[in-house]
Amino acid sequence: MAIPEKQPRNQKKLRLIVFDVEGIIIPKRRYLLFEASQRITIPRFIKMLWAGLLYETGLIKLETALRRIYKQLSGLPANDLFQLFKKIPLNPSVEKVFQHLKQDGYKTALISSGLPHVFINELAAQLGADHASGFDLEVTNGLVTGQISGDVIKPEGKALVLKKIMEQEGLTPTDCAVVADDRNNLPMFSLCSTKIGYNPDFLLAYKSDVAVKGDLNEILPFLTKKANVSQPSVSKRDLLRESIHIAGFLVAFFTMQLGLNHLWIAFVILMVTLVYVISELARMLGINIPIASTITWNAALQPEVYEFVTAPIFFALGIILALLLFPAPVGYASIAVFALGDGFATIFGKSLGRHVFPHNKGKKVEGTVLGFFFALLGASVFVNPLIAVVGAAAAMTMETLPTPLNDNLTMPLAAGLAMLALL
Predict the structure, then answer these.
(1) Exposed, middle or buried: residue 36 (CB in 10 Å: 0-12, 13-18, 19+)?
(2) Which of 9, 259, 374, 410 is the most buried (most CB within 10 A)?
(3) How many C-alpha atoms does 82 have within 13 Å on its Cβ side?
(4) What are the b/e assignments for 237-268, b being 16+ CB within 10 Å?
(5) pTM of the model
(6) pLDDT tens digits for 176-212?
(7) Which pLDDT does position 233 carry in this prediction?
């Protein structure tokens, strides 16, 4: 739960709240990866997925990626794609947030660079938003041609659209707030006095005024002073999720105590991960796999409920890398450091956190400090205290940094390399 360190700087009441769409209003990337892709061939889907990966790694521009992606949908009935879109569930609390803002007199805008304008109009009508913008999808004889156009797919496109809305409404930056999750929205940040990163990527975690993780409802205290700021708490969902994370320590402990072959343990974890991937793919298609799907439903963060949850995959890969890359004592200590350190940092950050790091608004100082303590205790089971201190410090420092890599990967790697240097 996000708790503001202090009230937003602007004293003037906000008048317009701008929302990114994918990842904020609807599940991130779900439409193209799971709904629309069911209507195309496997080779087309692979090309679509490849274009998305190239964009995520920064190798191609967003416009190039979108043109390649929508080219793979050419020949499909436009109405079929629209009906599939209408079936996508909204992220939890979205309707509640929009109702609250509307009741308090705020105007809202939906701006998407990844979806057609007609789709965003549908969302705006459903939520009562005042403005909606997406790109133009060319349709001929009822069929999608694969051609797209419009301002929003350009590098500064979202900012251009927002400027037009602000001019139309007679607004200035002090009247405006933006809620977004990835770097594609950065051009809008200079136009708004309040910048909220919602489950932000590494760039937005640095550029935002505040980072919120969890229920979308938690953005309200930063938008209107009439909203009550909830007291910090850790939900049952948080406890289950972090308990699974902390339990990673047992992998290292029992592997050492029972003298198990670490290569075989890594192989078993890999097989379990593949089973999990299959269960998540099935869940996205509406097929529940006993136990696996139930755990995911109960442990996933609110924004992840309707998405393909990737956190367990990175968690498993972090353990596998530690087992394969480092000699036994250091590898086990690395697992202990990131399993205990990251898990307890999240729990204490949510329950006790009051101060955020200036370079990463999504991390709390209190959580990191207490996470270091537990990481140190865990590592001390496998290596001497001095080496454990170095490993815990390296991992928890990495945990606070806004990097493009998942911290389930960076933390064990940083800890392992730091400890290995002292041997």
Answers:
(1) buried
(2) 374
(3) 16
(4) bbeebbebbbebbebbbebbeeeeebeebbee
(5) 0.85
(6) 999 999 999 999 999 999 999 999 988 898 999 999 8
(7) 67
